[in-house]
Amino acid sequence: MAEDNKTPEEEVEMITLEFDDDTSVECEIMGVFDVDGKEYIALIPDDDSDDVYIYGYTEVTDDEFNITDIEDEAEFEKVTAVFDEMMADGLAEEEDGGEDQ
């Protein structure tokens, strides 16, 4: 028998989003980030798509938080642009081996 030599991965935090049409989807919490003093959360749905959901984020307690739709189109565009830039920077660092040039 071969042993599994994989290193333990970080525990993935999941939440369930429930929509108005009574459907729900499990999502991995990708992270929380700040834009202009407001916090937002990026979620990856567990549906084999390449989608990322971005919502407003408010921490209630250490274990509880609220997420809200971003209804203002200009705000949503700004937040997604910052998120895309963060992802591009992260990929560039990963490709460079994490070193600044």
Key attributes of the depicted protein:
single chain, 101 residues, alpha+beta, five-stranded antiparallel β-sheet, 1 helix, 23% helix, 36% strand
Q: Any overview of this molecule?
A:
By secondary structure, the protein is of the alpha+beta class. The protein has one domain (14-95). It is built from one helix and five strands. The protein has one helix spanning 73-95; strands at 14-18, 24-35, 38-45, 53-59, 65-68. Strands 1-2-3-4-5 form a five-stranded antiparallel beta sheet. It is globular.
Task: Lay out the secondary structure.
Blueprint lengths: L13 E5 L5 E12 L2 E8 L7 E7 L5 E4 L4 H23 L6
Antiparallel strand pairs: 1-2, 2-3, 3-4, 4-5
Give a quick rundown of the structure.
With 101 residues, the protein is an alpha+beta fold. 23% of the residues lie in helices and 36% in strands.
Strand order of the largest sheet: 1-2-3-4-5
In oligomeric terms, what are we looking at?
A: single chain
Structural class: alpha+beta
Helical fraction equals: 10-25%
Average pLDDT works out at 86
Proportion in β-strands: 35-45%
How can the largest sheet be summarized? 5 strands, antiparallel
Beginning-to-end CA distance, first to last residue: 45 Å
Question: Using only CA atoms, what is the Rg?
Answer: 17 Å
What is the element string, with H for helices and E for strands?
EEEEEH
Number of helices: 1
**Shape descriptor:** globular
Number of structural units classed as domains: 1
How many beta-strand elements?
5
Taking pLDDT < 50 over at least 5 consecutive residues as the criterion, the unreliable ranges are: 1-7
